[in-house]
Specification:
The complex is a heterotrimer of chains A (about 250), B (about 90) and C (about 60). By secondary structure, chain A is α+β, with helices and mostly antiparallel strands. Chain A has four helices and twelve strands. Chain C has helices at about 15-25, 30-40, 45-50, 55-60. The chains are: A alpha+beta (about 250), B alpha+beta (about 90), C mainly alpha (about 60).
Chain lengths: ~250, ~90, ~60
Amino acid sequence: MSAEFDVEFIERDDRSARFLVRGLTPAFANGIRRAMIADVPTLSIDTVRFIENSSVMFDEMIALRLGLIPLTTPLADYEIGETVTVALDVEGPATAYSGDLTTSDGLVEPADKNIPIIKLNQGQRLEFEADAVLDRGKEHAKHQGGVSVGYRHLQRVEVIGDRGEFDEEEPHILRGVIETEDGELVATDEFDNDLTNRYPGKEVSVTDVPGAFVFHVETDGSLSVEELVDRAAESIGDRAAELKDAVSV
Amino acid sequence: MELRVIDKTDDELRLEIAGEDHTFMNVLKGVLLELEAVSAATYDVNPEQSGGQTDPVLSIKTAGGADPLDVLADAADRVEGQTDAFRDAFAAAA
Amino acid sequence: MMIPVRCFTCGKVISEYYEEFDARAREGDEDPAAVLDDLGVTRHCCRRMMVSHTDLVDVVSPYQ
């Protein structure tokens, strides 16, 4: 097996990306996908010490909401299990937002500032101190850095002839990314996921390209897409190195 | 990662790899099966809820007189090489 | 009571956009589908979180 990979980005945004990888085995593609979901750690609030909570929600409900707020995670500075202190103090009438959280580390902050935690009325107050801990998605879904991470085969579309004169024009729905005969990569939403829009009146054949996977990666903001993918591959590599060392003794 | 050898003969190995799941085991099995010296390789995991053996058990059978432990070390080395190559290719494109 | 922080199904943070969605599509008269597209809430699992939610904090807040 030659380890020759070819990566090509198709779409790229702050928090999401679609990229094509050639030369992958299905096992390896799935390993990376699983590692992105369950093995790349992120910081998330885990323990909350309430000083005052006179809001209409119970402490536990607020703690659950806090856990789900994504925090930017400088992975180089933290080991699994290490914590950052987070605090909040908001008095009603106001809504406590994730942006009101203050942290003990400048690099750690809520990735989204506009998440309403709880709406407070006149006389209601929310004050607490909390510990955010670095852990993996395997432990709790709140530590999952990737959101809707998945892959599809790259599909090759070839025109094999004209549609029969009296054939009904039926929609031919495809999702993902196709490769045309000229080797061009086209996301299916460009032609509304219907091949008959792109090749009207033609008969086409669709085949999976072996070893070519189109990954769709979206993050919750705690990590960048690049870091998430890199760390996922690294975690598999680390385990392989550990196994090699353990076996070679 | 803790290893426990369950069975070991000249051409067969059964090995428990504690703390791992499908993420790594399937990648490893995939690479093992591509090796010339391996005639059979598989792994078995039971779900968390089953209450019994929940760590994966890897089974390898080799051909042509190769020691299964050497084959396993070779496969782990290849997995590492592949992840390194993937990271390089990804960093180059990013 | 409050809009859930994340989509139950995919885990995308959706509470970010709820106040704007509420102001534009519920209080305002814009087309909810167009507002959701505009906010980047494209998957139908995330869209149902917004469309099917009713904020009840104001109803319960007088009681302690």
